[in-house]
Design a protein that fits this description.
eight-stranded mixed sheet, about 30% helix, alpha/beta, 14 helices, five-stranded mixed sheet, about 425 residues, Rossmann fold
Length: about 425
């Protein structure tokens, strides 16, 4: 295999704090909040680059305006759907009272905001409801379960995120019949209509997982205005999307999966799988015949959602799963297929030897392989020598092909993982 690197443009914002200050100063999100007002800042559970620096800048801006901000988890059923678990998720991202200088108020209690025209009961975090205003900090990106004009972002946070477990269950149940986009639009609009939401900071990331956009979206123009802005931001973020380095791959090796990487454990629009198991449903995305998932991210808290999209997994992945949050998260989202247990074996070598004959090639020496750290880290990858002639034009080979090294236990060696680990640190901090 050879190490390759993709030539992605770097859209990094160099001064995150200054950009946020300028954007918030130009907006009207705090105009109707008197000095001393309590502002609830909702933060989610995804692995967003620079998230601690971003949230800290938001907190300090509102403090400078005489407000009394505090942070609450806006993450539906994540963190095992416990107040302690959700606060712990934030702390793992560097968001705690000591680093932010404001309280972290975590609770699963909700207030019922009535029903939408479709009959959906709408909920909001109780601590947020009793604040003088609510401001959300979230990333706008494509969703792993569906494609639409409005997918993951502030509106989804206003629905599933701040609805906690009660809301997440209700909304996913209705989404099974109506579609998740329709539910997000309807529930989000009802939440905005309460007047509690003052706006949010929409974060965009580029192909390098770098902070590429920081846009303040105000609620003063109503739900439709917020939706229009988010649709534009999503369209732009989709145009920056990173893809695998070749159009057709027989075996994709993924070193780690996790909720911090993608809501589905692996980004479906990278691996070309649906959460319900459909193979290659997205025509604009590289084709992947088989997926070998090697392990869990250390930041997923044992949540193994996404293993069901793999065709084979290492025993270490199975052994690392905490089934309580895994079951809770998957069943709340009405995606039981995402946690089906695939074939699993005790070594990387055995997993590869077992799966290679299933891709339809009589001569196994012609099977192509690509190996990535995770679906967020796509700048660098290992590819088999026979895949090199089919690489995309913007992909460059940066090492001579070499024999794959296995340890005494027939696992891929640590030295072979180093170039993939290194890339994940490129844009992880300011």
């Amino acid at each position: 295999m050879a190490l390759v690197e993709q030539d992605f443009p770097d859209r990094s914002i160099s001064d995150i704090s200054g950009t946020i200050d300028a954007a918030l100063a130009k907006s009207d999100v705090s105009r109707n909040l008197a000095s001393g007002s309590r502002l609830a800042i909702g933060v989610g559970s995804r692995g967003i680059s620079n998230v601690a620096a971003i949230v800290r800048a938001v907190v300090r801006f509102f403090q400078s305006r005489g407000l009394k901000p505090y942070i609450f988890p806006a993450m539906g059923s994540h963190g095992a759907a416990t107040a302690e678990g959700q606060a712990d998720v934030l702390a793992h991202y560097g968001i705690d009272e000591a680093s932010m200088g404001v309280p972290i108020v975590s609770s699963l209690e909700v207030v019922n905001l009535g029903r939408t025209k479709e009959g959906i009961e709408v909920y909001i975090d109780r601590t947020a409801f009793h604040a003088d205003g609510v401001f959300l900090v979230g990333r706008v990106k494509w969703h792993t379960d569906f494609s639409g004009a409005l997918e993951s972002g502030l509106f989804k946070m206003m629905a599933i995120g701040i609805g906690k477990l009660a809301g997440a269950r209700q909304y996913h149940t209705f989404a099974y019949r109506l579609g998740l986009e329709a539910v997000i639009r309807s529930v989000g609009a009802q939440v905005v209509s309460t007047g509690k939401i003052v706006g949010g900071l929409a974060i965009q990331e580029g192909a390098l997982h770098e902070t590429a956009g920081l846009t303040v979206v105000s609620a003063s123009g109503g739900a439709e205005n917020m939706i229009r802005q988010e649709e534009q931001l999503l369209s732009e973020a989709k145009s920056w999307m990173a893809k695998l380095p070749a159009h057709d791959i027989d075996v994709l090796i993924v070193d780690e999966i996790g909720k911090n990487i993608s809501g589905a454990g692996m980004d479906t629009k990278v691996i070309n799988r649906s959460v319900n198991g459909a193979y290659n449903p997205f025509p604009e995305i590289p084709i992947v015949q088989r997926i070998f998932a090697r392990g869990l991210s250390s930041n997923t808290y044992g949540n193994g959602v996404g293993l069901g999209m793999a065709d084979v997994v290492h025993d270490r992945l199975i052994d690392g799963i905490d089934w309580n949050p895994t079951y809770l998260n998957s069943l709340t989202a009405s995606t039981p297929a995402a946690i089906r247990t695939p074939a699993h074996f005790a070594s990387d070598r055995e997993c590869l030897e077992r799966i290679a004959p299933t891709v339809g090639r009589v001569d196994l020496s012609t099977v192509t392989y690509c190996r990535i750290k995770n679906t967020l880290s796509l700048k660098r990858a290992w590819v088999s020598e026979n895949l090199i002639p089919t690489l995309s034009p913007h992909v460059h080979v940066i090492s001579e092909p070499a024999e794959v090294e296995f340890s005494e236990t027939n696992d891929l060696t640590d030295s072979s993982m180093a170039p993939l680990r290194a890339q994940s640190a490129l844009h992880s901090s300011v």
